[in-house]
């Protein structure tokens, strides 16, 4: 694998995890938003990723193996979580229904914080992979001296 390919793979991971952290921050910022542009409560947003694959040449993956070689990750988009909103009893709230229940966003702070920690760790792992590839490239250049 070329050094530049390793850089591209790590960069795609960094981009994906950054989007994931931005989406989580947006979800946390709207944890109490009961009115959105759609008319209902805010819907939790979730990024969708897919592997970025390159068809491997015959035998490139090893003897007798065919398939696709990983080239990183691509962002397919950001979608709304289809889970139902939380119902909270608060008859004084301006958005309460006739029974006193308010539809709150389907954002759970603990779940978002766990997702944020995993996104942060994944980001850090991609930075380490990028630094390792850079270090290997520098060592390869030193050999040529």
Describe this structure in words.
- The chain is built from two helices and four strands.
- It is an alpha+beta fold.
- The chain has one domain.
- Strands 1-2 form a two-stranded antiparallel ribbon. It has a two-stranded antiparallel sheet with strand order 3-4.
- The protein is elongated and about 80 Å long.
- The model has no long low-confidence stretch (mean pLDDT 88).
Secondary-structure element string: HEEEEH
Give the integer mean of the pLDDT values. 88
Q: How widely separated are the two ends?
A: 22 Å
Radius of gyration (Å): 22 Å
Q: Indicate the proportion of strand residues.
A: 15-25%
- The spatial strand order of the largest sheet comes to 1-2
Give the fraction of residues assigned to helices. Answer: 40-55%
Classify the secondary structure makeup into a structural class.
Answer: alpha+beta
Largest sheet: 2 strands, antiparallel
Number of strands: 4
Number of domains: 1
Question: Total helix count?
Answer: 2
Overall 3D geometry?
elongated
In the predicted model, the low-confidence regions spanning at least 5 consecutive residues are none
Which terms would index this structure?
two-stranded antiparallel sheet; alpha+beta; single chain; 145 residues; elongated; 22% strand
List the SSEs and their pairings.
Blueprint: H1 3-29, E1 45-55, E2 68-80, E3 86-89, E4 101-104, H2 109-143
Helix pairs in contact: 1-2
Gist of the model:
This protein has 145 residues and is α+β, with helices and mostly antiparallel strands. The protein has helices at 3-29, 109-143, and strands at residues 45-55, 68-80, 86-89, 101-104. The two termini are 22 Å apart.
């Amino acid at each position: 694998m070329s050094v530049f390919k390793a850089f591209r793979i790590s960069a795609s991971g960094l981009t994906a995890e950054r989007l994931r952290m931005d989406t989580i921050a947006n979800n946390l910022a709207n944890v109490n938003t009961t009115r959105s542009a759609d008319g209902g409560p805010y819907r939790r947003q979730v990024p969708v990723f897919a592997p970025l694959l390159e068809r491997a040449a015959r035998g490139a993956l090893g003897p007798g193996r065919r398939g696709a070689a990983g080239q990183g990750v691509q962002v397919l988009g950001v979608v709304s979580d289809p889970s139902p909103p939380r119902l909270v009893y608060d008859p004084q709230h301006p958005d309460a229904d006739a029974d006193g229940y308010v539809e709150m966003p389907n954002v759970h702070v603990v779940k978002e914080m766990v997702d944020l920690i995993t996104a942060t760790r994944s980001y850090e792992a991609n930075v380490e992979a990028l630094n390792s590839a850079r270090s290997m490239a520098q060592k390869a250049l030193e050999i040529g001296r």
